[in-house]
Amino acid sequence: MPEIKEYQSQVEAQGPVGGTSPNLNQVTAVGRGLSRLGESVEQGADIMNRADTQAEVSNISAGAAQATSDWTTTLKQRLANESLDVDQFKQEFSDYIGKMGENLETAGGKNYFNKVKNRLEARMTTSAVLGQAAIKGRQMVDNWQSTLDHGSIATMADPSQFDTTYNNTVDGINALISANPQLAGHEEKLRREAGETLTVAAVKGWADINPDTARKMLEGGAYDQFLNSERKEFLSDYIDKKERHNDVEDERADRAQEKARKATAEDWKAKNFTRLENGALSVREVEGAVNTGILDTKEGEEQIRQIKMIAKENIKGNDSFQQGVIEKIQSGEYNDPEDIRKLVGPGKLSVSTSGKLIKWMNEDPTIKEQVTGEKNLLAEAKKSLKADVPGAEGLMAQRYNQFWQDLQTAKRTRKDAGLPIKDLTTPGNPAYMGNLLNTSQYRPSMQDQMAEIIKHQTNTAIENKDPLAKKPGETAAEWNKRKNGR
Questions:
Q1: What is the pTM of this model?
Q2: What are the residues facing 344 on neighbouring strands?
Q3: To 5 degrees, how large is the angle CA 454–CA 459–CA 460?
Q4: Contacting residues for 334 by C-beta, under 8 A, at least 6 apart
Q5: Residue ranges covered by each domain of the chain
Q6: What's the CA gap between 318 and 305, in Å, rounded?
Q7: How many Cα atoms within 13 Å fall on the side-chain side of residue 409?
Q8: How far is it, in rounded angstroms, from Cα 193 to Cα 307?
Q9: Whose CB among 199, 249, 381, 423 lies 3.0–4.6 Å from 223's, allowing a Cys bridge?
Q10: Inter-CA distances, 68 with 55, 63, 345, 426, Å
Q11: How far is the C-alpha of 212 from the C-alpha of 247, rounded, in Å?
């Protein structure tokens, strides 16, 4: 090992005041202390730098979360009102997020910000692109649905235009595919959808015009290429319902027409009653009223019968019969002028007597109140006992007739008991029969009405299919008798 020569200082060393000169070990210790002090200062600076970085990272994270929330809301709003421009949105968001990094000082903060910025820009751009694509997709679906809806409405209004409307729709499909390449391969599906939709509309349109025509076209195979068995069954049921609806409407119209005719007939008879009584009404006038539809055949025959009776002066009253009529008027059993007119005849009432009785009915306060009360009650019964569903009218008519019969029975019972009959027709009175109208005694449940409809339809179907087929509830003897009778 080479020998190290001792260094000789040229300047006299000065020791510490009041002490001895330091030795080598003391100098080495001082050097080490200074070294550690330098390391501590460096570590302290590094710690401070990391704290600044963490503060910036924290601020960046908070700002990124707020930016995500705010700009997601903005994106949704623009998508909702269809004002989104993807490029403009990207630029606005990039400008906004870029301002977050303007005042960063630490390298760690800047590095973290760049990562966050790139990630957020990519995420928001993707959301904007997908959102705009969704809008275009919805618009395309809406446009297609609108095309089908308008075509369906037009076809149902005029089913004879089915071919033209279908061909126009197919042309629209071809244009749609050309403008939207992503739909390539869906042509056949769209054509099937259009064909089925327009076919359903066409059959319904024919059913509205004439159910028989609709059934012939459906069962004749005119639309087989567009319909599966399930849709054909659906449309067949639709035609059945339309036929039943038309039958009900026809019946309702007939009833309304007959009601109006009867009102006209009653008005005619009332206006000509005095002339009939005086012998001034002629057979020719009555025949004219029948020919013009004012009177039906039976009403005309009755008027002519009375004219002939008056002409023969063969109309004499019967006092005992007349007294019975008066009692029935007082009891309320006769409450309509027509009830009295029907009693004109030999041994019954003269025309003159019937006129006096009708006048009494219309003018006597007690009789008038009673007659009015019963008319109001029966009008309420007709209104209350209406069918809830088409087809149950027969059942409701039976219940109305039963109510009328029960009312007559109740009147006779109260008369025999010496009780006021008008209580039965006076609202608010405990004996008021109108209180029973909405009870099960007279008003059948919806279930009972539906059962009546099904029963009627079943009987009708059986009769249409085979008039000689055994009917539900028919005994073997009754069935054989009916068959042999035919």
A1: 0.33
A2: 349
A3: 95
A4: 325, 328, 340, 361
A5: 228-314, 322-363, 367-444, 450-486
A6: 19
A7: 6
A8: 72
A9: 199
A10: 20, 9, 101, 77
A11: 13
